[in-house]
Specification:
The protein has about 350 residues and is mostly helical. It is built from 12 helices and 4 strands. The protein has 2 domains: about 280 residues, no CATH class; about 45 residues, no CATH class. About 65% of the residues lie in helices and about 10% in strands.
Length: about 350
């Protein structure tokens, strides 16, 4: 497979590495910040990071925004409001290590929702990848221990909400990834800050606030932009499976940054994740299909058989984002369940 074909997966893997790095890097900040306040500052940092890009791109087209308004509302409701509240509720019934273990259900929830309701095709190699990723994630978390009970149900509901969030995010085609990240960061950040205020969080030192915002700008802001760009081309299920490698990237950083011991079970989990990614990228799905005329906005390149409009200053294989129109077409070619290929087959 060429670099251009691998590019969406590379985007998501880099997003996973950045997001995974946030946990060990934020470790020292928890001495001065509660988890709620830290989460709020990280998300607000993400919003601040993408502000220059959003200002350059301007406001989204009214017609494209209205078509995506319901999707964006679902992202904010399920991913920005309900899921964090359910997660916090779960933390009142179980220890953090157990909750972290059950959070691995997010990948399974995303894939099942994508297959059942969002018309993503999942082949045998894909299901085997799901199994490997879920088992590998469990292996990484198992050394922390497990305490189920009511928390398991609450976390499962939170993962279901995040699964809906992931699937709706992959369908956004009227906003740039930076615009989506800005809205998501502002909403999630504000909610977490309000909750931390209700919990009585004391005011932290300013330098700690700045450090948290800077960490959020890189590990959340850039990560979200890359993830959204990749998910639009891979589909929610495949993007989430690749993104599920985030805990392993975080573990690798913890080994080097904090000299934490390398556990054999974590090495085995990493090998399983690599095998899962190899299976995902080896998928081949092709059949004759039809596309209706559509006008939308998303990252694309000009060598994929769909984007044949002409630019005077852009090379055909260079990716970029802008609003464009597709004419109706019937053809056959290898494809993934991206925003062009949500069809019955």
């Amino acid at each position: 497979m060429s670099y251009a074909g691998l590019r969406p997966s590379i985007l998501v893997l880099v997003a996973a590495a950045l997001f995974g790095a946030a946990t060990p890097l934020a470790k020292t900040l928890l001495d001065s910040l509660s988890p709620l306040l830290l989460a709020g500052l990280l998300y607000l940092g993400a919003a601040v990071a993408v502000c220059p890009s959003v200002m350059r791109s301007g406001l989204p087209d009214r017609r494209l925004f209205s078509r995506n308004a319901l999707r964006l509302s679902g992202i904010l409701l399920f991913g920005g409001v309900l899921a964090p509240v359910l997660l916090l509720w779960a933390l009142t019934h179980a220890d953090a290590a157990s909750v972290a273990l059950w959070l691995n259900l997010e990948s399974l929830a995303t894939v099942l929702l994508a297959w059942l309701f969002f018309r993503e095709h999942i082949q045998r190699r894909g299901w085997l990848s799901v199994l490997l990723i879920v088992v590998a994630s469990l292996l990484i978390a198992l050394p922390a221990g497990l305490d189920a009970g009511p928390a398991a149900l609450l976390v499962a509901l939170a993962c279901l909400c995040w699964g809906l969030d992931n699937n709706l995010t992959a369908l956004i085609d009227g906003l740039t990834p930076a615009q989506t990240t800005l809205v998501k960061g502002l909403v999630a950040g504000t909610i977490n800050l309000l909750l931390s205020g209700l919990a009585g969080q004391r005011r932290p030192p300013w330098h700690v606030v700045v450090e948290a915002l800077a960490l959020g700008a890189v590990c959340y802001g850039l990560s979200l932009v890359l993830y959204i760009g990749g998910a639009q081309q891979l589909g929610a299920a495949r993007a989430q499976l690749s993104f599920s490698t985030a805990p392993f990237w975080g573990a690798m950083l913890a080994w080097t940054l904090f000299s934490e011991p390398v556990l054999p079970v974590q090495v085995v989990a990493g090998a399983m994740m690599l095998a899962a990614l190899w299976l995902l990228h080896g998928e081949r799905h092709m059949h004759r299909h039809a596309h209706e005329a559509i006008r939308h906005l998303h990252w694309h390149r000009h060598d994929d058989g769909h984007h044949d409009h002409v630019h005077e200053t852009v090379a055909p294989v260079v990716g970029h984002i802008h609003e464009h129109i597709h004419e109706p077409v019937i053809h056959s070619h290898p494809h993934r369940p991206d925003i062009h290929h949500r069809h019955e087959h």
